[in-house]
Amino acid sequence: MIARGQWARAGAVAALAFAFAAAGLAQQSAMQRGNAKFQHSCAPCHGAGVGDDGHAMLPGTDALRIKYKGAAPPVPALLEERTDLTAPVLKVFLRHGSFSMPPFRPTELTDAEIADIAAYIADKAKRAPAPKAKQ
What we know:
The protein is mainly α.
């Protein structure tokens, strides 16, 4: 026969395991939501790939390549390779815009969506190869 204390302990372990699993799913879904929002709101200018105008990069990615050319340490032009773009940093650029990048109102990108985009970029950047210094 199983003692009452053992049932309580087993229940506590199960609840803890469920909480960790739920936290993992929440983080995973934040990255999935961030990916979807990044593809919709950011990638048309800041994604990887060739621009419609024939340039080797999309306009936002190319502008960042020019801006950070020669930076030490190297700063990737591709947002998905950046490790410095936390939610607060993204919020500043997204709310105020930068040069030709327009600002995004909270009705266009909520603070929660910005946090999701930051989670997606951080996860993607972890998997990106380290930038190489120019020799």
